[in-house]
Automatic annotation (TrEMBL):
Pfam short name (any one): HTH_36
Taxonomic path: Bacteria, Pseudomonadati, Bdellovibrionota, Bdellovibrionia, Bdellovibrionales
Top-rank taxon, per record: Bacteria
Compositionally biased tracts (Basic and acidic residues): 89-99
Protein name: Helix-turn-helix domain-containing protein
Region feature (Disordered): 88-147
């Protein structure tokens, strides 16, 4: 755009619609005053119809401010007309150009225009789109902040949350749930602390009763009161116990020791104080008994 042509166009004493068309042509002119915009572009820039644009151009040609030259493409088809602006020509204030429009446009106040009151003082109230949409410069796209934040939340999920989850199932659903609760404002540390408490409590819970990570997030389970991780069981004190009793207790737990505590060994036989205990020991602990050479389990008396 050659700014001297635009300045020259604004200084012309012309009816408003005609001046807008001249300014639009000047805005598109090169340094030699040549331009070739389409009537559609000029109409879009000035807010007029294409028919009105053609009328204004004819009037500008009649005034000697521009000349028009038909153009054709190399294929032979008609192209948009070319225009040459004659910057040496000027319409002074004493000239009274007539608008090609049959009805003069009204001022914003409703007063009809005439050469006497046409001072163009209300031009500033009309906005001309100097740069048509076809040539508007595109701003570089900026990724929405919401997408950027979501990517950050997914990194948190992958690096910090997922590794400490108890049941690593339905990862896709867990990712979506994690992003939702983070976007809702829940602090990362709050979620991580809650999952650690949940993981500690889950060590004594059957797997089928442990919620999936997505369920845990959707139900806001981080708000549950934390349960302290169970203390590790103290090793049984098997000091002084015979090897066969110690093995039964190690294999079946501390409760098993109570069943054999008052039983005594006599060679290849274990003697229990009651028939019920003898039957229990025989049915439950036979593998351990056989490893220690015990083949029989009996009971004392008639109990």
């Amino acid at each position: 755009m050659a700014h001297e042509y635009t300045t020259w166009a604004f200084k012309q004493n012309l009816p408003t619609a005609m001046k807008f068309v001249l300014v639009a042509l000047a805005d598109r002119a090169d340094h030699d005053g040549h331009c070739w915009p389409s009537a559609r572009d000029i109409a879009s820039m000035t807010g007029q119809t294409e028919r009105s644009v053609y009328n204004q151009i004819d009037a500008l040609i009649e005034l000697g401010l521009i000349t028009k030259k038909a153009r054709r493409r190399s294929s032979g088809y008609k192209a948009s007309n070319g225009y040459n602006l004659h910057i040496g020509i000027s319409r002074e204030a004493h000239d009274e150009p007539r608008s090609p429009e049959t009805v003069s446009p009204e001022r914003p106040s409703g007063e009809r225009r005439s050469p006497e009151n046409d001072d163009n003082s209300y031009l500033n109230d009309v906005h001309i789109n100097i740069n048509p949409p076809s040539e508007a410069l595109s701003e570089p796209s900026v990724e929405p902040s919401g997408k950027t934040r979501a990517k950050g939340f997914l990194r948190e999920f992958e690096k910090e949350f997922w590794p400490i989850c108890v049941r690593k199932v339905a990862k896709g659903s867990a990712e979506k749930a994690f992003v939702r609760v983070r976007q809702a404002g829940t602090e990362l540390q709050t979620i991580l602390d809650g999952m650690r408490r949940h993981a500690a409590a889950a060590t004594v819970t059957e797997e089928q009763f442990i919620p999936h990570p997505a369920t845990w997030l959707n139900q806001q389970r981080w708000k549950d009161e934390g349960k302290a991780a169970p203390e590790p069981e103290k090793p049984m004190d098997l000091t002084g116990q015979p090897a066969w009793k110690a093995e039964i207790a190690s294999a079946h737990g501390e409760g098993a020791l109570s069943w054999v505590l008052d039983a005594e060994r006599d060679g290849e036989t274990v003697v229990a104080p009651t028939k019920f205990k003898a039957d229990w020991i025989r049915s439950r602990y036979q593998p351990q008994l056989l490893r220690h050479g015990i083949k029989h389990v009996e009971h004392r008396g008639n109990q």
